[in-house]
Amino acid sequence: MRQDRVLALVDCNNFYVSCERVFDPALAGIPVMVLSNNDGCVVARSNEVKALGIGMGVPVFQCDSMIKRHDIRVFSSNYALYADMSRRVMEVLKQFTPDIEIYSIDEAFLSFPGLRSLTGLRSLTGLRCADYAAYGREIRQTVMKWTGISVSVGIAKTKTLTKVANEIGKKYPRYGGVVDLSKGPERRLDFYLEQLGVEDVWGVGHQYARLLRAHGIKTARDLKYADMQWVRRRMTVMGERCLLELRGVPCFGLNSHPVPKKGIRSSRSFGESVTTREDLEEAIASYVSRAAEKLRSQNSCANILVVYIKTNKFKRDEPQYANSLHIKLKEPTANTIDLTRYALRGLGKIYKPGYRYKKAGVLLEGIQSDRLIQLHLFSSLYYEGREQEEKLMETVDRINRRWGRGSVRLAAEGIRQRWKMRRSMLSPAYTSNWEEILIIRV
DNA sequence: TCTGGGGTCCTAGGACCC
DNA sequence: TCTGGGGTCCTAGGACCC
Q1: Which of the 8 DSSP states describes residue A416?
Q2: Residues A69-107: pLDDT tens digits?
Q3: What is the mean pLDDT of chain A?
Q4: Does position A22 have pLDDT exceeding 60, yes or no?
């Protein structure tokens, strides 16, 4: 891996909240939060909400009084909107460089090209070469102008240090959301690392932070200079890489080509507990449809299906039951009808009456390209009608893409869908549904 | 009353094979 | 009483990320 490469991490600020604000300017400057599926937990907070001390992932019912007292505007997750806004932001970033890794819905790593390529960018940005911070400001302004989303840019030699740069940017607003740690004396970097708790380092979660603190490693700087052998022994090679990256040694490269997923999961908590097998069957059937759709969209098929159900673990006074079944398929497939058949048969084996179920899901594993299928000895892969079935799936996908998910579905998925999740505070699908498009009166 | 969903990687231990 | 060694594959569980 080249040592001289400089990376930038572009991170959307309070992304879901920012998306809501783009289409409703009245939300600017007031406290806003967005909830997880089922309106369960707080997953995005405006700065005003963060300042009130409401943490990430807190169950909503625990901050009911805060919401009332501070008149916080609360929204259900509107993934259709966020996914579309994410796509727009990424499209803007792609105009800056083809060397981009879309890391999550609201983050992307960009690689600065060598000096020679930067000259090509001069016409676009009018910058001196290697003035990375100025480049970062250009990105920030462009994304804001073209999408309305505010982003932070962290610049450094390793991914972990770009994360650090973004954290520093949050701590010091005077930097204006762009921090360049790619050059300057090591002392300066160490000064910043000292400001960060070890738990703020990318790759150090709850458990490791506790372990490290118990051994006197309290800041990011402490971790950088910790004993490497010890870190490797206690935190596996991932910990070691984390430490090396803090020292400026790149361990994680830029993956600019999306790799197919190795596992695809679809699961939901129910809006209300479910007791009947029929309701569970409907839910499982619709999760299979979702998962199979994703599977086909990456041109894969799977040969393992896992189905699971569980009761509400938070209800201590209710009888608890959770079970899952691992099913090896006779042949890899991406056909919703086949997969549904397997899943419902599996559900029949683990379902026990008399419990109040809160969550169910399916996982597809053993994923492989649909062009390189390993044949079973007595394979029925080329049975008559297979081609029609594939065409059917393609058609279903096309219709659902055009007219919205679930427009065409298996009867097994049900019609009433009593188990559906709660989304009582949903904003309109401003950008992806003609019926809900924003109307501006002048 | 109310507690999300979807991923990744690594390791240890057991089964199995020669 | 004595009871090999080394490799591979798979799985479960634990950690992390957003």
Answers
A1: S
A2: 999 999 999 999 999 999 999 999 998 888 999 999 999
A3: 90
A4: yes
Give distance CA A274 / C1' B2 (Å): 16
What lies within 8 Å, CB to CB, of A184 at 6+ separation is none
Structure confidence at residue A388 (pLDDT) = 86
CA of A275 to C1' of C8 (A): 44
Q: Is-contact A3 A114, C-beta < 8 A?
A: no
Assign a CATH topology to domain A1-183. Answer: Alpha-Beta Plaits (3.30.70)
* Protein CA A57 to sugar C1' C13 (Å): 24
Strand B atom within 7 Å of A296 CB: no
What CATH architecture does domain A264-413 belong to?
2-Layer Sandwich (3.30)
The pTM score is 0.92
User: What is the second-level CATH architecture of the domain A184-259?
Assistant: Orthogonal Bundle (1.10)
Question: Is A236 near strand B, with its CB below 7 A from some atom of it?
Answer: yes
d(CA A224, CA A156): 15
Counting Cα atoms < 13 Å in the Cβ hemisphere of A257 gives 3
